[in-house]
UniProtKB/TrEMBL annotation:
PANTHER family per UniProt: BLR0577 PROTEIN (PTHR40254)
Protein's UniProt name: FAD/NAD(P)-binding protein
Positions of the UniProt region annotated as Disordered: 107-137
FAD-dependent urate hydroxylase HpyO/Asp monooxygenase CreE-like FAD/NAD(P)-binding domain ranges (all copies): 6-159
Organism expressing this protein natively: Streptomyces ficellus
Lineage: Bacteria, Bacillati, Actinomycetota, Actinomycetes, Kitasatosporales
Pfam families for the chain: NAD_binding_9
InterPro entries, sorted: FAD/NAD-bd_sf (IPR036188), HpyO/CreE_NAD-binding (IPR038732), L-asp_N-monooxygenase_NS-form (IPR052189)
Length: 483
């Protein structure tokens, strides 16, 4: 008798875990609990061709090592893709769907059954009675339609779903002229031609929203706004380097409590850059223009003329920071990351040059503005739309407000009865161990419940990245199949 594994979630992270586990020896069954077809989750389940990955084909893979599976998949189907490309996200969804079907066929041929319960999971609890025949604990997952499923191991592969509403708009929640999230993007496409849109957010999903709203000569106009007004930096690739550039050993050795931490960290990162591009200092690779549109144009020029050498150090930096910071206690991790939030969001989450070019073109026609601050006042008009005022300008009328201001991370929590809740209703935030187990606290017994990708955000700093989930899946599969 082998293990019965339950995977909660059905997006890319669930598929990377499944491909590792379903074909491993000693697994009797894998049961997905997910409300949609496996592979087609939130991030990559879109059908909108306008929405591009912000990660290159090289790292948008279900396997962290070896050649990119996505590149092999695209090339075999005649797509002229290279490892540097930022492909439409729907292609990653199709890739995940097919990889799932292939792995399921292989698993079935080896005697491992795969089931899919189309529902959402609500809670997980360890059964009181241990299975003596199998000499293992069993876990019961309760679904939102009242069904229950039991297994020996539970993998939590939730994505980002609950949009964050900016403070300024909380009291207008539910207003018909307020879209709380830019996804699904068809809701943006349905806005009337010529609509004037105030778009909250200047990061990745706001850029998606602006490009969809302004696509195909829609005649719409968009004002993007955020507290910083800062757009991400621009890149032409995010790939694993052919040879190591970063002094990984030195970075992993840095003491997070040292008063010299920031200087030492900067020295290591600049050292990697100067090894890669010896005669080009960081100031000549980036723009410091105060105006967001000017900075975008300058960084687009730097990226497309091969001057942005920093981009080649990013993939290694993400992997190393995740490895370095994972063992720390939560407070240390939060403190160190908070000090470096600006470069993390600007450079680690940079945008593809193709998107930057389209943004710059919309800005040049006057269809897109980027406001450097939030409006001072936003009021609904009695006859529809909104009146908006900035400190330094006249009142303006917009027809719709769209929020693209990020997501709440999944909140796993335990109740006093030993039940793990997936929606934060349990009361006590779950602890994630260094080996990615979900427990009630650091001293609690290790459970066979594992967090992968975004669900592990309380342990791993940079989780909104398929490669991080693929690394998690590799680690969890190794522990799960070789206890
Ligand atoms: C808009 C967007 C764009 C992104 N672009 C990129 C990119 O280009 N490159 C990259 O590497 N990363 C990107 N990311 C980050 C992305 O979240 C991760 O890469 C991740 O790998 C996506 O897979 P996932 O399975 O976590 O999430 P999802 O694809 O969101 O899938 C998770 C699924 O879990 C299901 N679920 C949620 N709650 C429950 C429950 N209680 N029970 C059962 N099922 C549940 C949901 O229905 C959801 O579809 C993007 C994220 C977003 C939001």
């Amino acid at each position: 008798m082998g293990k019965d594994v339950i995977i909660i979630g059905g997006g890319a992270n669930a598929v990377t875990a499944y491909t590792r586990i379903a074909t491993a020896p000693g697994i009797s069954s894998v049961t997905f609990v997910a409300p949609h077809p496996i592979g087609l989750g939130g991030a990559f389940g879109t059908t909108d061709p306008e929405l591009l990955c912000n990660t290159s084909v090289d790292v948008t893979s279900l396997d962290p090592e070896g050649p990119s599976g996505l590149l092999t998949y695209l090339t075999a189907r005649g797509w002229p893709a290279t490892r540097d490309d930022f492909v439409p996200r729907y292609l990653v969804g199709q890739f995940c769907r097919e990889r799932f079907r292939e792995a399921r066929a292989t698993a079935q041929a080896r005697g491992t059954a795969t089931h899919h319960l189309t529902a959402r999971a609500e809670t997980v609890r360890r059964d009181e009675d241990r299975d003596e025949d199998r000499d293992e604990d069993r876990y019961t997952v309760r679904l939102d339609d009242g069904r229950e499923v039991t297994g020996s191991d539970v993998l939590i592969c939730l994505g980002l779903e609950r949009p964050r509403l900016p403070d300024q708009l909380r009291r207008h929640r539910g207003h018909p002229d307020l879209l709380p999230s830019p996804y699904p993007s068809r809701r943006l496409r349905e806005l009337p031609a010529g609509a004037r849109v105030l778009l909250y957010g200047t990061k990745l999903s706001a850029i998606d929203a602006a490009l969809v709203l302004l696509a195909e000569d829609s005649g719409r106009s968009v004002v993007m706004t955020s507290p910083s007004g800062a757009l991400p930096a621009v890149r032409t690739r995010l790939c694993r380097p052919d040879k190591a550039l970063l002094d990984t050993a030195r970075l992993l050795d840095l003491d997070p409590h040292s008063p010299h931490l920031d200087t030492r960290l900067a020295r290591i990162l600049l050292g990697a850059l100067s090894r890669h591009a010896p005669r080009r200092g960081i100031r000549r690779q980036t723009s410091t223009a105060a105006d967001p549109a000017e900075r975008l144009a300058e960084e687009l020029r730097l990226a497309t003329t091969g001057a942005a050498a920093w981009q080649d150090v990013i993939a290694e930096t993400i992997d190393t920071i995740n490895e370095w910071a994972s063992p720390w206690d939560r407070r240390t991790r939060a403190d160190v990351l908070a000090r470096h939030r600006e470069p993390i969001t600007r450079y680690i989450s940079a945008i593809p040059a193709a998107n930057a070019r389209r943004l710059a073109a919309h800005h040049a026609t006057g269809a897109l503005e980027v406001a450097a601050t939030l409006p001072r006042d936003v009021r609904p008009r009695p006859d529809g739309g909104w009146l908006v005022r900035w400190d330094d300008g006249p009142e303006r009328h917009v027809d719709r407000i769209v929020c693209a201001t990020g997501y709440h991370a999944p909140r796993l929590s335990w109740d006093s009865g030993g039940r793990l809740h997936l929606d934060g209703a349990g009361g006590t935030d779950a602890h994630i161990t260094e080996d990615l187990r979900v427990t009630p606290g650091p001293a609690a017994r290790p459970e066979r419940i594992w967090a992968i990708g975004a669900a592990a955000h309380r342990r791993t700093p940079i989780v909104n990245y398929l490669r991080t989930a693929a690394i998690h899946a590799r680690e969890v599969a190794a522990r799960l199949t070789h206890p």
